[in-house]
Automatic annotation (TrEMBL):
Protein keywords: Disulfide bond, Periplasm, Redox-active center, Signal
Annotated signal peptide: 1-22
Function: Required for disulfide bond formation in some periplasmic proteins. Acts by transferring its disulfide bond to other proteins and is reduced in the process.
Protein family according to the UniProt entry: Belongs to the thioredoxin family. DsbC subfamily.
Domain Disulphide bond isomerase DsbC/G N-terminal as annotated: residue spans: 34-101
Pfam families: DsbC_N, Thioredoxin_2
Organism annotation: Parendozoicomonas haliclonae
Localization, UniProt: Periplasm
Taxonomy, superkingdom: Bacteria
The protein, known as: Thiol:disulfide interchange protein
Record domain Thioredoxin-like fold: where: 125-248
One annotated Gene Ontology cellular component of this protein: periplasmic space
Amino acid sequence: MRNKNILAAMLVSFMCAGSAYGETETALAPAKPKVQDVIQSGFSKVNPGLVVEALRPSPVPGVYLAQMKSGELLYVSEDGKHIFTGDLMSIEGGSPVNLTEKVRGERATQQLSAVDARDMLVFPAKGEKKRVMYVFTDVSCGYCRKLHQEIPELNAKGVEVRYLAFPRGGQRSPAYSEMVSAWCAKDRNQALTTLKAGGSIPSATCDNPVMDQFNLGGALGVRGTPAIYLDDGQSIPGYRPAPDLLDMMGL
């Protein structure tokens, strides 16, 4: 019973820790070439399609963090014989900190910041731009519509909101066609707003990034909408009211 109470206390501490990060894996140097060769060889024996894109030591001696070409993060022993899945937690500072989630968030921010702003639907900040918030959205998603109603409040506080398309049902879903029409509309922001208000817009097609953004979301681990990423690497799955988001951004 005592062990269960300790575990429960640790989980509560982790939930309260929020975005407080201590030691991070991203600050560590890349693995030595010989180690990477050994680990890649181990993966290749299991499946030639398992390709290590980047490898770095984890804070645990003898264990490395492997970033796979598929986007997954795996932990692997130095000899390549043992693989660990899941999140690595640090309790060095007294409160559990999810080191793996920190890496995921930073990777996501790097990839999102590389997306051409012209391919996203951008709702700019009013006045000085203080923060940027990326949102994978679906026009058929109720909570996405709820969040969209609060975008003016975020804009007024200096937050630029950048929308990426994520039609949850994929290319054959009605939402996909609607989002293509929005991305191809003359006034794209108004088209998106109309759809999220339950209205309809003229059907349109063009060279568009909807599926590219859908695939990017999948690679980042997006499974539902809205999926929010802040410019500091913090990921927020699901809807949060504007005041909560502003508090997370220190605004």
